[in-house]
Give the backbone structure.
Amino acid sequence: MRSIGFLLLLLLSRMAPAAPLEVETEWLAVLLNGSRAGHMQLTRQVFADRIETTEAFFLKIDRGGVPIVVQSEESYTETRDGRPLGFGAVQRISGAEMVIEGTIDERGIAHVLTRSAGSVQRQEFPWPEDVLMAEGSRRLMAANGLEPGTEYALKVFVPSSLQTVEARVIIEGIERVELLGVEQDLLRLTETVQIGQTETPMVAWIDSELTLKKTRMSLMGLTFEAIACPEQCATAEIEPTEFFAGALTPSPRTLSPAMRESALTYRIRAKYDAGPLYFPASEEQRVTAAAGFHEITIRRLDGAAAARSEPIDGSEFLSATRWLQIDEPAIRRLAREARGGEQTDRGTMRALERFVRDYVSDKNLSVGYASALEVARNRSGDCTEHALLLAALGRAAGIPTRIATGLAYVDSWLGAENVFVPHAWTQALIDGRWVSFDAALGGFDAGHIALGYGDGDPWDFYDGVNTLGNLDIVSIEAPND
């Protein structure tokens, strides 16, 4: 949820007017399926020795009927010729805040400070020479020109996720575009962004001075648009929109608890052309694709139910992250308390799963997205909060863990019956295999379909952006059918 605005902001960062002004400010109204959902503001300040660009995003949505406010601000500091100097990000959702500050020294080393829920983390990494920020991206566009048919690639840094993404831009041509009741002749371009295993396309329209006038993209079965207009227009009254309505996937049959305890085979196809569907394979989730369909068989791994796989190096899944603050005393204490006398990794994870299910006593959708430390303190949240806390406790207990994101079957949600809903759960590396645990839904079963894996950063959800809302589950077969 914190990353909803990234793909729009990525494009905005290189669409500022070409004429060098002392201060430039651009407002855009954000629409979700045609309803006003928020606004964006882009500010570019030119100094004698640097250029500072700030991108602010505000979104208000309904999540299962519960209002959620998402705010983010990303900033870039660069030399006048586009060389990166520093960056920052502030992310707020339902009262939770994460602040990132970064600088790049003369040796090309990025120094990052992250603050969240009272926890402070520091990290360093070498800055890749070919990765751009806002001004560098803008200069690259100007250098390539705007002739129809022009195509070029670039790599862009995203402060809120500390990630680099690859993008491909194609200049198309002039067309008539409607802008909230006003029509203009604008230059159309498309941009395809590669995030993890997913390619996400978006369309933008700019004027002759490179000023962004409109951009549109599909995400989780919904249409996001940002349309340039005066501040009063951009910040007009918001119309509540159900964010997950487009991501619900009907089940072709009722799945009883007994059926979900066994293996299930799904036959799935795309509902429309929004990029290829992606399903990661594992010992729990076997995937084959042919003739426009994916066939996925899902089973729960119980002890010796499956052969041991090749060894997996789990060391990277034992570290603290911005979202899994396992070095904090509160997390360490809960891990010891929850583990009790369990000695095996499997027994420990089961104990931790039971503990988290009871510990998160305020189960609601209003939290939005909280880190493990925030959940440890507030004891509130939904599936993502259960998953992050369980993953953090597992790592604190010395067990490699990661977060699985995807879909899970429920009997009813938002007035719909027998549907698959967006979901997150936890996986632990046990006996050389990734084994799933779900503290939110009473345990993992074959009603879970994974779309991606990660360390808890909302960025990880992008592996499924072209799949959520684009699934047609044609059939589900059980062993006794």
Remarks:
- Residues 251 and 419 are 5 Å apart (CA to CA).
- The chain has eight helices and 26 strands.
- Residues 345-359 form the longest helix (15 residues).
